[in-house]
Amino acid sequence: MNRLNLALLAMIGAMAALPLFGGPYALRLGTIAAMYAILALSWNVVGGFAGYPSFATAAFFGFGAYATGVLLGHGWPLALALITALAASFVLAGLLGAVLLRLRGHYFAIASLSLVEVLRELVNNATDLTGGGMGLNIPLAAGSGVLADATFFFYAMWALLLATALMVIAISMSKLGFGLACIRQNETAADMVGLNSTLYKSIAFGLSACFVSAAGGLYAAWVHYIDPSDVFDILYSVKPIVMALMGGLGSPFGVVCGAFVYLALEEVVWRNYIQIHSGVLGVLIVMLLLLLPHGLISLHWRMFWRRAKHA
Amino acid sequence: MPEILRLDAVCRRFSGLQALSEVTLGISSGEVLGLIGPNGAGKTTLVNTVCGVTPASSGRVIFMGQDITGIKTYQAARRGLSRTFQIVQPFAELTVLDNVAAAALFSQAGESLKSAREEARAHLAFVGLEAQAGQSAATLTLAMRKRLELAKALAMKPKLLFLDEVNAGLNSAEVEKATALIHQLAADGITIVMIEHLMKVVLNVCSRIAVLHNGRLIADGPPREVIRNPAVVEAYLGQQYAQRSAGHG
Amino acid sequence: MLVAQVLINALVLGCLYACIAIGFSLVWGVLNVINLIHGSFIVLGSYLAWGLYQSLKIPPWYALIVAAPLFFILGYLLQRLLLNRVISAPVLVTLTLTFGLDLILNNAMIYFFKADYRKLTLNPPIGSVSLFDVVVPVDRLIATASALALTGLLYLLLRRSRVGRAIVAVRLDRDAAVLMGVDVKSIYAIAFGLGAALAGCAGVLMALIFPISPLSSSTFLGKAFVVCVLGGLGSVSGALAGGLLLALVEGVGSATIGPSHATTLSFALLIVFLILRPQGLLGRKGFE
Fold first, then answer.
1. Which of A130, A163, C62, C122 has the greatest number of C-beta atoms within 10 Å?
2. ipTM of the complex
């Protein structure tokens, strides 16, 4: 396990201590931070490792939110509902992946984006099951009291983050990760050396979806009320990409750092410029892409190199 | 010698262009077949069709007794069909060693990354690239990249190896080295089909020559016979070459 | 609903869809950039038409004359100064960049104009026309005619003018165009400017028919996408074909399974086409 992966695990480990230092606000922020990190890490599997620019994250986030919400509404325990949502989305994404990942570049990006739209409309129209445009009320799933609730959901999201990070690290060290790297660099050559690229891509897409769905499910249980335009929001597809671009594509540690930095910026902007916060997000994205195309992680190494030269 | 590959009336169309017409060809195990013909004759298309990159529009491809018409590329690779590309296709960010290890890892069952890397070293040694093992593939010269292609193809433990213009872009010293490697492979018993424009190499190495022109097989036989075939001279070799080689007998 | 009415509606709407999409298609086909700001440009054009009518009583068909150059300059500068820097970057970067720019524009519009829907109502209203049993509102007719005129103008521009031929050359083979002496950077900027101008003009026309709000920008963008994939990229005939097909599918779908499913249907159709026929009905495939 290389140093960056160890650093990632250490960082996540340190996060666990948060409830000791913070009240409800810090816990809320921490839960969102963990959620963002899950989304970014998951996206990195298909976008960073395999090189397919997926905009489908919101589709699976919403899927998980609704699957879990509906199951909770039928009296299922939270853990079981989440695991079901996770498994279902893995299979769904795997099947969709086999079809959609035959497309490359722009076409794949659009197809994955359309997935979000299609799922949102389907949920919107399935009023009997999901409440449609009126939203879905989700029964309280955990203990009582604001702090207990907040702590519970923080640890739940944190545990999910740990699981996601372990999955991603395992991939990066495995034959699957090696294969995805080959696919990213030269898919034709990958086929030629005997790699079943359709299978690998489907698995990658499935893995990129399942933890996102679980996070969506936890989110739904946490906020108690969801509606289609809330959870199938394109921003849930774009933000992880921005976080990954910020932190440095391909590196799980970088991606999570990007998620945390992004959240910090978002909070600052939201608190101070609420009316124009999406505009400010837009400015951030533009500046990031024009000035720091390789992410924050490139900044770090560049500084290190500059120092070494003058040593 | 048993037949290892057979093409039966194989055709391949690309919306309006008949790239291969009724190609019927048998290749015996252990031989070195030269596949020659003018540009656009369909030589690379033939390789692509056998290896599953562009499936045949009609006809059959039989490899080691099994009908493999229309199988997927990775399946062909795992069955023992290996090829190099005219325009080399390395994994640019991986090291030279990992490029070859990838080939060993994915084409053979039961390999781990570790064992694949060990095997890769041996193949790199064979083509003379051990010194570059730790370098990124993007830093190699063209001649070295061609040898890397070959090492990758060999790491797949092929039963039949297609060499697509391995000598394009190489100077004569590099061509000599490449030819020596091919001789060695043939001696080791791998069946080889080489697409080649350098007649010197073809005559040096090949036990048989097949000639494609406009997607059709126009000649197939021992080298000395084929180069004297008037259709072949007309389509590809040219009168001057024919006269020169006739002079040499 | 009478079959003829459904068909006529589809024809009218199809031309409008084509107009919405043609600028988007041009930019995608020539620059290989999916311009996510396109929808917001259209909405901005609508606001321009609305503003000109409210304050100066200039009707939309004249507003076109103002809109076209204004938007052309906007698009040209945007490409030259910003987008050009990432023109050779992977899909991910250009998509995210235009997404970010769209966030800025959209947020600005919400901030300055507020999100409520406005309607440009012509005073005096111009009613509708009916032939046999088929009714068509005159404003839609005018919008359709103008849309066709715009697409016709673009077609002539691409076919007959030097700049147009250069644009087509770059679309067909960028590298060859460079070798022929075409200043590709300029062409990119011109093409993007044209795309923006077409979007702005489409917006002016849309103001006649649809309510105006920044919230509609993603709807317009979505339509543009679908039309491009259905019809094929970078060609006027492709946009028309795609527009007509989409309008037809929506119209028939609305009449048979209900209007609420119309959007789902169009996106599902998009996915089907992407998988089975990515080059669309008439087009050549865009770049990868």
1. A130
2. 0.86
